[in-house]
Amino acid sequence: MQRYAIIGSGALGGLYGARLAAAGHEVHFLFRSDYQHVRQHGLKVDSVWGDLHLHDVNAYQCADDMPPCDVTIVALKTTQNHHLPKLLAGPTAGGGAVLVLQNGLDVEADSAQVVGVQRTLGGCCFLCSNKVGPGHIKHIDYGRIVFGEYSPQAGVSDRAARIASELNAAGVEAIATDDLLLTRWRKLMWNITFNGLSVVCDASTDQLMDGRWGEQLSLSLVREVHAAAAACGVSIAEDAIGTTIEHTRKMVPYDSSMRLDFLNGRPMEVEAIFGNPLRAAQAAGFDAPRIEMLYRQLKVLDQLRRGSQAASASSSAAT
Amino acid sequence: MQRYAIIGSGALGGLYGARLAAAGHEVHFLFRSDYQHVRQHGLKVDSVWGDLHLHDVNAYQCADDMPPCDVTIVALKTTQNHHLPKLLAGPTAGGGAVLVLQNGLDVEADSAQVVGVQRTLGGCCFLCSNKVGPGHIKHIDYGRIVFGEYSPQAGVSDRAARIASELNAAGVEAIATDDLLLTRWRKLMWNITFNGLSVVCDASTDQLMDGRWGEQLSLSLVREVHAAAAACGVSIAEDAIGTTIEHTRKMVPYDSSMRLDFLNGRPMEVEAIFGNPLRAAQAAGFDAPRIEMLYRQLKVLDQLRRGSQAASASSSAAT
């Protein structure tokens, strides 16, 4: 059984780490503000997969104290990636792999710069989960992880297959893919559209999908991300467009992670989710006017909000 | 001296009507909620052109009571245009002209349907003015009116020249044009961009112009409106693009009328300012993805806001 480190034990990292720990893995969790609470009260996960309460958690406040692990899962917000050189040093000291479960495009680059491309994997989580209090996560829907080697042409590696099988054994639907780029663009069809519009239109996903205008607006963005992917050489099946819309319509009413960040005065992951894909599309000769406009609107909102409101340390969410 | 009716005596109609009255014209003002206040306290205009306080105002609460006038100025929000058949009947009973000073494209159509195209003129006001209290207007910058016949190919009519000269004599910069469509598209370069973005980015014009992202965003919209006009056969000088941006940068910090409507829970003029130009551009074969996206974002915001918040009767503004 491999030993895991969780860098960023919030709505996403806390959930998967807790499942692995409950399945018998040695899991080391890095916390920030919740550290003391988790030391005293453990880590509580209310989940559609069944509730968990880990009483004896290997919790750390400082990554330097973490032991070398076989797999280090990066589950921070990308806005914290400048801390990665310091955070990855301890847990990756033994030569283990890094699995980057962050939203956006090419978000593995920061981790790869620390440990090298050959030791880096990346993946997308299709997950509705919120942190509802210190050391307390509420996982409300979905949860699948699709991940693979960051290095293209690496195929499905043995280590990816092994991580997938350990996650599966822990009750997590995890799929090792040989096409991480396709996985990332496929998820961006949702993230660009619904993270962006939920902030700019000040609406939850169900409010967006509840009227003709929100649906047309969403569809035009889903389509443009699909076309941007194609321009970048990533061919996603045409019916993914309709599926993305239908799937969102059927979702539990949900505040996207970006909307929660915005409402709570935290920096938004604008560069990872919008800036990187936009630059990739434009470098491939595709204009992407709608993505560009949403990107710039979010940059304005992010900067005005950060200028006028102090960061709050309350709730958090992932997807 | 011609007799004027003002339909909608807010930040715009109240200002111009008061100037005409102070210059000796017989002016009849239609009020809604401010009627009683104006009957008792008159109409107060604090203005960069000099302050006015009209004590004896021909104020009406019901348009049917208004006498026939030579010129009826429509200065309502376009969201109230469904009331026009009732509001225009009295003041236009003698066969006078209607001058539509509303924002947007083809906003004269509703008035023309009541009195006929041949009796309709339209114009744009380049104006920063706010209603700051009942019967109290604060005119903070600009104020030029450019107007002309609604019927194309009518040239500068005698009646347009006469209205311009009377406005000029009242201290209002007014220019009669033979190209109303060009005037409207030229103003839309500002209105679409800054009305729309100020709502969606929750920012005043100076906040929008204060950073690189807001400026790029604004510029991309100004450019697209310029191109949409060209597609509709309206050729605006290229340097109007830079002028629009520079002019906005130098403006007094200003909340657009649409932002004030939005913040106060009033319906926004989305169809007049966005829907009509968008449909005109698309009918001419021009995609206008940015205008379309802003239009749909505003439709979503307008509908969610109207669903969740009662209309407030407080301040109002024009431009």
TrEMBL record, chains A, B:
Class of this enzyme: oxidoreductase
Pfam families hit by this protein: ApbA (PF02558), ApbA_C (PF08546)
UniProt similarity note: Belongs to the ketopantoate reductase family.
Stated role: Catalyzes the NADPH-dependent reduction of ketopantoate into pantoic acid.
Location of the Ketopantoate reductase N-terminal domain: 4-151
Record has NADP as a keyword: yes
Lineage: Bacteria, Pseudomonadati, Planctomycetota, Planctomycetia, Planctomycetales
Catalytic activity: (R)-pantoate + NADP(+) = 2-dehydropantoate + NADPH + H(+)
The protein's Enzyme Commission number: 1.1.1.169
The keyword Isomerase appears for this protein: no
Domain of life: Bacteria
GO cellular component: cytoplasm
Designated name of the protein: 2-dehydropantoate 2-reductase
Pathway: Cofactor biosynthesis; (R)-pantothenate biosynthesis; (R)-pantoate from 3-methyl-2-oxobutanoate: step 2/2
GO biological process: pantothenate biosynthetic process
Domain Ketopantoate reductase C-terminal span(s) in chain numbering: 179-300
Organism of origin: Crateriforma conspicua
Keyword list, A-Z: NADP, Oxidoreductase, Pantothenate biosynthesis
Molecular function GO terms recorded: 2-dehydropantoate 2-reductase activity
